[in-house]
Amino acid sequence: MDARYQELASRIGLGHTRRIPQLFEAIADSTEADYLLALPGDAPGMAQKFGVTEEAAAGMLHNLFHKGLVFPSMKSNPPTYRMCRDLIQFHDATILWPEAPRSFLDLWQEFMEVEWPEYARQLSQIVPRGFSRVIPVGVNVEARAHVLAFEDVREIVEQAKTLAVTPCTCRVIARKCDHPIEACLQINNAAQYSITRGTGRQVSADEAMEIIRQAEASGLVHVVMNKRSVDHFICNCCSCCCQTMPILIQHGISVIDPSRFTAQVDSGVCTGCETCLDRCFFKAISMADDVAVINDAKCLGCGLCQVTCPSGAISLKETREQDFVPEKLFG
After folding, report:
1. Mutual orientation of helices 87-94 and 19-27 as an angle, nearest 10°?
2. For 254-288, how does the pLDDT look when each residue is reduced to its tens digit (9 = 90+)?
3. 76 and 27, same structural domain?
4. Is the peptide bond before 40 cis (omega within 30 degrees of 0)?
5. Around 226, how many Cα atoms within 13 Å sit in the side-chain half-sphere?
6. Rounded distance, CA 246 to CA 63, Å?
């Protein structure tokens, strides 16, 4: 393989893998790879570096943006472009490349099934906290204080300046279930990025809440970036295709934090219908004497079990302090 693709993979910390260099090779030709390796830069600087017109350099940078390989910073004029900074950006952006051939998407899924679990295990041992976090569905919570703005899906949506919905990149490549594909909400700058690039469509707060309601009805878990400001995304994750859920469920590898809440059952109200057993991704619910019992150690506090409990026996209780959620990612 051309060493340039190995270097590109190394720049996002994955030069040791087999498939990430292959993915770069599949999406970027040799000239595009040269441009990526020369970043960060703007069109005039790249034109000078490669001996082409500024118009040609701008066209190349736009093409790389279209493919999801570069991100522009509008803090400078003309914009300064940088390469995707990590696996998550590379994954989420390039999978939505409109012209992506099925072979490219299948190669992504190969990586997720073969190489991602071990890489995730290593990450979980290095970083102190998960890079994403569960937030409860739109249900009542028994809290000692008000539920905080960054863990209330309705408030997150209503406070957003810009909202967009994009296809779920995980379900696009995995195709393991029939849950909704158009299900990932992008917020503010991330929304504007997807609208500008054409990989998402702008939605109103009401439309976003309808997507949230449909996700909850479908049995999907809300996941956000693990920090106190929710200004990037609300993913609606399934148990089979998602980046984080299957490796937690199947391999016990956690790169996702729970919410601050845990489900609890009122044994006097529970009818033993077992509806909640099917709803729980994490096998945190069992039956004892025809009553549902919660294993607190396994419960991620998503609230999916509460949404469909016909007797109203399940609620969420606050079990972690407000400072459980970090101020910033990896903070």
Report:
1. 40
2. 889 999 999 999 999 999 999 999 999 999 999 99
3. yes
4. yes
5. 22
6. 33
